[in-house]
Amino acid sequence: MGRQPAMSVEDKTRIVLAVLRGEVSIAAGARREGTSAMSVSKWRDQFLAGGRQALEAGARHGPCAREQQLAAEIEQLNTALGEAHMELRLWKKGGSLHGASPSSTRSAGRRG
Fold first, then answer.
1. Separation of alpha carbons 108 and 34, rounded Å
2. Calpha distance 96→14 (Å, rounded)
3. Closest CA to 33 of 1, 66, 6, 73
4. Are 27 and 33 in contact (CB under 8 A)?
5. By the 8 A CB rule, do 44 and 16 touch?
6. Dihedral (C-alpha) 32, 35, 38, 42: value to the nearest 10 degrees?
7. Count of Cβ atoms closer than 10 Å to residue 40 Cβ
8. What angle do helix axes 26-33 and 9-20 make, rounded to 10 degrees?
9. pTM to 2 decimal places
10. Contact 59, 49 (CB under 8 A)
11. How far apart are the C-alpha atoms of 72 and 97, rounded to whole Å?
């Protein structure tokens, strides 16, 4: 008796999902697809273990590297925007961050 050709992942998934939904028993699914109940049981266990690992991995990991990079860029832009806003407010009030208003610097340059 020769070994049966390997089933595709899609076929295995379809059988396992039918078993998990309660549409067929493991034995009935195996008979219908021409495979052993032991194989279907093994596929089901692998499927569930993979799902569990995926959920655990998602719970362990925070934001991905790209999300962290974007968050840092947003923080830098917010800081720059805040600084620009404060400079504009000071300029409008006639003050300056460097001790001289832009208008007094221009007029000083004309005198010389």
1. 94
2. 70
3. 6
4. no
5. yes
6. -90
7. 25
8. 150
9. 0.49
10. no
11. 26
Q: How far apart are CA 15 and CA 39, in angstroms?
A: 11
Confidence of residue 99 (pLDDT cuts 50, 70, 90): low
Per the CB < 8 A criterion, the answer to whether 19 and 25 are in contact is yes
Neighbours of 83 (CB within 10 A): 11
Q: Rounded to an integer, what distance in angstroms lies between the CA atom of residue 93 and that of residue 85?
A: 13
The total of other beta-carbon atoms located within 10 Å of residue 12's CB is 20
pLDDT, tens digit, 9 for 90 and up, residues 31-73: 999 999 999 999 999 999 998 888 887 766 677 788 889 999 9
Residue that wins the pLDDT comparison between 48 and 109: 48
